[in-house]
Amino acid sequence: MAANAALAADAASAANAASAANSIVPTASPRYVLPMRRSTANLMLLACAAIWGTAFVAQSVAMKTLDPFWFSGLRFLIAAVALAPFAAAERRRAPQPFPRRHVGTVVAICLVMFAASALQQVAMVSATATNAGFLTSLYVLFTPIVGWLLYRDRPRPIVWVGAAIGLSGTWLLGGGLSGFTRGDGMIVLTAVGWAALIVLIGRVVQAAGRPVGLAFVQSLFTGLACVAIAIPTAPIALDAVRDAVWPLLYGGLLSGGLAYTLQALAQRHTRASDAAIVFAAEAPFAAIGGALLLGERLTAAGAIGCILIFGAILLVQLWPDRRGSVIET
């Protein structure tokens, strides 16, 4: 991915980074970004997967009392409020204004985020937490394809092997096509959106920085857009909000605020295709959360699927990378 030198005074450092173009991925200004190992970045992404996987339980519980658009709108507005002071502090510390040439990509991120989040929440009315986690993991396959289509980014060969293993695991975890519902089909469509989001976020934060600001903007836009749809279409009662307060807080503060910030931070230091493999861990976390908290059954085949998914993650993470394991700064 293309590097972006933030200041003229950093020209020498930028030249050194360009000469090391076969290290992982270039980042923004050397003065603003601390080096991070790919393994550390991927551990942060694994934490995101754990939060998002268990968030399927919160989303499923909330659908008993709240309209999908109200839940999505409120959770993302909570996330935006929580992120606002950190985004403001990040802006004050930034060495330069946000590059205008990336504004269009940020707009695309906001639109994709809104569409995928809203569609996923509507799907959770009928899809189980386990199946939602399994089907969402299809972005393991979609992400390298989207990256290649949009930017001609060529993933490492081992990523395709990991994707095949991960998809095999998600197939076992979801029980094949048996019991496939309309909600399941909608979740598959959201997987394409999440794949595009992974690619677009990686492109912006590696070139322009501002990961917290990006998480704030996409959360604010998604929250406002969902509420704008919910107000005229779905009356809301305070009792319904009160009954869903814990799912809202989990979805807003952890799944929205914390996890999306960790994603933006970590994706400055790893490839989008590698990130998609790590995010596949959402499926087993969703299955475990569904089994423990909702009584959804995890079969023997599902357990094998969990093992395969984690195996795929370890394969991509530990496979020797000839292009280096630390961002050059």
TrEMBL record:
Q: Keyword Cell membrane: yes or no?
A: yes
The membrane topology noted for this protein in its Swiss-Prot or TrEMBL record is:
Multi-pass membrane protein
Main localization, broad class: membrane
Per its record, how is this protein called by name? EamA domain-containing protein
Q: Which residues form the signal peptide?
A: 1-20
Q: Show the Pfam families listed in the entry.
A: EamA
User: What transmembrane ranges does the database entry give?
Assistant: 41-63, 69-89, 101-120, 132-151, 158-180, 186-205, 212-238, 244-263, 275-294, 300-319
Q: Which GO terms describe its cellular component?
A: plasma membrane
Keywords associated with the record: Cell membrane, Membrane, Signal, Transmembrane, Transmembrane helix
EamA domain: residues covered:
41-173, 182-316
| Localization of this protein | Cell membrane
